[in-house]
Amino acid sequence: MKKTSYLKELTIKSTQKRRGTSNNRKDVMKIQSWLSLYAIQHPSSGTVTAIDGDFGPATEKAVKNYQIEMNLPVSGIVNQEVFSKLCGTMERAFTLSTAETDVRTLVVKAAENHLASFPYELQIKGASNSGPWVRAYMDGHEGSSWYWCMGFAQTIIDQAASTVGKNFKTLFPLTYSCDTVGTKGLEKGLLHRYQKIRKDPSLMKPGDLFLLQKSTYDWTHTGIITAIKDDVIETIEGNTNEAGSRNGIAVMKRTRNFQRSKLDVFSIDPLTLG
């Protein structure tokens, strides 16, 4: 893969514990982040804690609660083995079988794999669009201004393309901007406008990107198309919510009526050839 920032989210430099002499603020924040992410899926676990880089009694207790949940020795200490369990969902999300060779199938499988791993953003120091999942998709960037829907979509395309030895950057540049991808699609003749899509839905296929059009050259949100049926597409989108926001909180599967929405479609056909 070209986008490899996720690897930094899977390791800590040394064992972290209360009053530890080798404690590292960034590593402690990673631990606190993953404990909080675990709590989102397991709200009664008691693992959510402040993400402040201080391995104090609250973090120690949260670690112990996690260790109880996972049937691990209850020490309140996080070594790499414990941390690997904490961030195991991300490692699984970025593991894609090499048995499949069809790029479109790989794109859909990669998107589904990430969806099943529950990527959520966190608020850290009052800033939304933060946490390990956002940094993984956004090449280390995070914070309120870093909308991550395109970062997610490009990560999925990158993962699928690299599995068969292809470079996603031949399709479009690494970017976090829907406008950049939309403009590149127009330049390459790969962007189908919503008016054409409505008349001929066969122009879009699973694995393509939709771009939600605000105006002719302004796109505000994107996601992976996973299925098309009748007037509806099924999608997997980053930085969205139950209302389909472009600045939501998670990766989610959605349905969208392309006959009623201004959904331009970027074809990934060049990655499927040769």
Automatic annotation (TrEMBL):
Residue ranges constituting the Peptidoglycan binding-like domain according to the UniProt record: 25-86
Pfam families in UniProt? PG_binding_1
InterPro entries under this entry? Peptidoglycan-bd-like (IPR002477), PGBD-like_sf (IPR036365), PGBDSf (IPR036366)
Question: Which SUPFAM superfamilies does the record associate with it?
Answer: PGBD-like (SSF47090)
What is the top-level taxon of the source organism? Bacteria
- Name the record gives this protein: CHAP domain-containing protein
Originating organism: Ulvibacter litoralis
**Upper lineage ranks?**
Bacteria, Pseudomonadati, Bacteroidota, Flavobacteriia, Flavobacteriales
